[in-house]
User: Fold this.
Amino acid sequence: MSRRGERPDAEALAALPVAVDAMGGDKAPGEIVEGARRAATEDGIPIVLVGPPDQVGDTFGLPLVPCTEVIAMDEDPAGGVRRKKDSSLVRAAELVRDGKASAMVSAGNTGATMAAALLRMGRLPGVIRPCIATPLPRLGRTPAVLVDAGANAECTPAMLVQFAQMGAAYVAARFGTTSPTVGLLSIGEESTKGTPLVKETHALLAGAGAGAGARDAGSGAGARDAGSGPTGFAFEFVGNLEGRDLLPSPADVIVTDGFTGNVALKALEGSLRFLFDAMLGVFGTNDETKAAADVLLPYLLPMAAEFEPENTGGAMLLGTDGVCVISHGSSNAVSMVNAVRVAYECATRGLVDHVAAAIRPPAEG
Amino acid sequence: MSRRGERPDAEALAALPVAVDAMGGDKAPGEIVEGARRAATEDGIPIVLVGPPDQVGDTFGLPLVPCTEVIAMDEDPAGGVRRKKDSSLVRAAELVRDGKASAMVSAGNTGATMAAALLRMGRLPGVIRPCIATPLPRLGRTPAVLVDAGANAECTPAMLVQFAQMGAAYVAARFGTTSPTVGLLSIGEESTKGTPLVKETHALLAGAGAGAGARDAGSGAGARDAGSGPTGFAFEFVGNLEGRDLLPSPADVIVTDGFTGNVALKALEGSLRFLFDAMLGVFGTNDETKAAADVLLPYLLPMAAEFEPENTGGAMLLGTDGVCVISHGSSNAVSMVNAVRVAYECATRGLVDHVAAAIRPPAEG
Assistant:
């Protein structure tokens, strides 16, 4: 069921709409449709909503691809995608597959979004498993990205090397990073630290026996794929990073398995939330603290905004033959504007081609 | 080389000194000796320092067990302990083994501290591998503890079940928690989420096939070992927790493998440090923000203090036949006062007996 034929070129992609799953997320369809409307009117991004017309309601003039089913937030992902062939998620993925949309965005069931994208768009040639890349703020700089942030609880060293390649292609496409640096999440700087998975991945990324699958790894920003066709993405491997290096990350890409990545990401989110809440509690102590807080909040809020998941544009699925943005389940209209913007930008900048080139099997190189 | 004969009873332990590795940590010996001195004079805790006399310098009247070697912070742990038999770390562990100290405290090389404690004190009967328990703040309540926070990068389900048992015994001994709750760190609440390790551990902790090794697991606070001898510790298994549940943890004990635990712990430490630093930056923006900060700081600092590693008393090694507190490498005098206090309290409250009882093989039960 995956894509047949050529991917649309940049000009064609820019004219295609972004498919928005109108029924995905805790605040669907209200906030989702509102965010899509704003992205269309404020940014001029072409949009197509997907959902059951009677449930979506007013589309504010946005086109709607009708369907009859919705995969619930807590539904079994694989089963949902298999059974609900006329669901908003599956139909959105099919629009990308069929060249009728440049990208899909959903704030719905994360597992089902991944499954729909994977099953309908298919994997890019050579990709072992798609992964999720999630931005990590670095105040005043472009975010770093964590891959895999939760798609694959179990990983092999070869998968982690591909996550590095795809993550580097992603920061290049999204942020224009020309010489991405990649770090490997571990429990010590030394290459001997960590699990066998981490130690073997370290050896591959450092270039010893990297082989074709990681031919650019560790060879520095100057190394490029010499083959024909799109240029492979080089990156510089900076070695192991630790949990304390996640904020702010010294590397543009932090590679880990999806279990560790998900735990670490949620630990960061939880601790920042905890501290913000505790701080707000202090601010409200008495009239004097409230007045002091009024002075500081104009300075603190922009900083806090950089940590808000709603402003990061959501997570990107990498390795599928089409752009798929997975937005937080709690997404509001602001989150959706940002998610649609990221989806559109990455699609028109040829993210999929970049990822394909970074992973392309050596036989095709 | 492990302990022979009976452990000292509570009264005997209270009379024994805490052995402090005077050469352990980035700020050794100055801050370490000063912290030990304060614990002795302010809390009346008996202390014995261990270190080379010419390097330790003034002991302010504290007794010193002399030795000739020091294991460096970055030295290979196993090799250091094997080669440097007359090092402060090894000698401190031997004092506990030989019944001449109630506990040992070091802010030195974490791996070497574990190795010295394990090799000299030995494992408690039935313990597969010792683990590190690190406190996680819960504002206004007793901290939760994370086990394993980094001793074992690779774990089996049976090891994780023991971490739960030892962690529960620890919070009972240290904080007086009568019915400890235990959660399992994973990437979703459902028992089907996570790695095979997590899924198998979940099944064991939930009681299905727990067997003798986890005989109290999941059976609620009412369940007690009916055998003779010390009473086993019961705990209530509350299911999976996610990274966002670490601060504040709804469970008294959070169980995970040492790789995930170390990454998560350092992610928390790093994000809190990042946010505090960013906040301090905002406070210093101009005279108005400085004045506002002066109003708020008396309220913010006590909160920040709860997050400071120096105030948590360090991490506890569980499963060895003797109390061993592993303090942060950056420990100052305040950290050491707290670490010595925790070591002394846990030793005199019979932590080792409690852990032994929680783990005791069924044949002895």
Remarks:
- Chain B has twelve helices and eleven strands.
- Chain B touches chain A through 52 residues (CB under 8 Å).
- Residues 208-233 of chain B have pLDDT under 50 and may be disordered.
